Amino acid sequence: MRRAESRMPSQPTSTTSLRELAWLFLRLGATAFGGPAVHIAMMQDEVVRRRGWLSEERFLDLLGATNLIPGPNSTEMAIHIGWDRRRWAGLLVAGLSFILPATLITGALASAYVRFGKLPESSWLLYGVKPVVLAVVVQALWALATKAAASWPLRILGAGATILSALGVDELVVLFGSGVAMWIARGALRSRPGQHLQQVVPLLPLAGGAAAAGVSAVSLSGLFWVFLKIGSVLFGSGYVLLAFLRADLVERLHWLTEAQLLDAVAVGQVTPGPVFTTATFIGYLLHGPSGALVATLGIFLPAFVFVALSGPLVPRLRASAAAGAILDGVNVASLALMAVVTAHLGRAAVIDAPTVLLALGAALLLFRYRLNSSWLVLGGAALGWLVHTAGLAR
Predict the structure, then answer these.
(1) pTM for this predicted structure
(2) Measured CA distances, 110 to 147, 192, 247 (Å)
(3) Which residues, 6+ apart, have CB-to-CB distance to 197 below 8 Å?
(4) Is residue 299 part of a domain?
């Protein structure tokens, strides 16, 4: 049997209850600090290594698919996993469960911010959590890379993608360039090019912008359309999200000040779960609890739509020689992007002797004893608080 056909079952291979999905993604949503790379690493630990719901190959294909559509990658990965296990019900349960904890936490922080005019002190939290999540991502990269870079052409491609990403080349260029390079390397262009082009069309990003809100006064409908547009067209990291928010909310509509925007982004960074819950904070600032709900709905709704449209296509893409080659290239490039993010995280996370010990200890517990990553994150937060309380942090 061809490798492409054996990797992509069209139906779930075993039954997963909706309660299992809800509990897993609620827990991940409440403990997954550090951004999409960390979230995806924790998902890999739970659904591949611990539960065996997905193979490494299947996980990589879903990861590649999330990188080909706009929106929050880790949230889309949760939605893809839900679709894989329980189709439409799983898609909704997994996605909503992953988003809910961060939304509630961010809403509570927004309420405190409106009341007191400042954010609570949280440096101790990131001090202890960052070294731990660094180890979590490294462990996931190690496990996934053995599958994604199974041949020398893929290893060379991964190395090149890593270098280009580190040099600042746009991540979409790296992703699609890697996919096309692998397509060419496998000789797909030598046989009926028109047919292969038709097979590749489904891989193109499903980007399409909703009409931008054209009002200067804050209204719930205007708030919804602004965040729907952002969720529909945004590729990339939280830094890209910052650029979109600044362009729309500060410069064009004048709904926020620069200081308020930076505070909102800071909340997205220090809370667990998807960084896109920055929208929850901004919505609360602009229109109270109803604004928080509308902004959250607007920015996350496209992710559910894009996964619902693209999820059923993934097995067909894998079964196609041309599209499968592109997907392999995108998969290895996705890990290259994660590796570059991890390097940046390492410079920010390992800053003194206690954080070095935290990172090494977390790596030992993960690689040797296979400790659950969620418990490691909670332990890192507790140790961060102790170190700061004792005055040992730099």
Answers:
(1) 0.68
(2) 42, 56, 22
(3) none
(4) yes
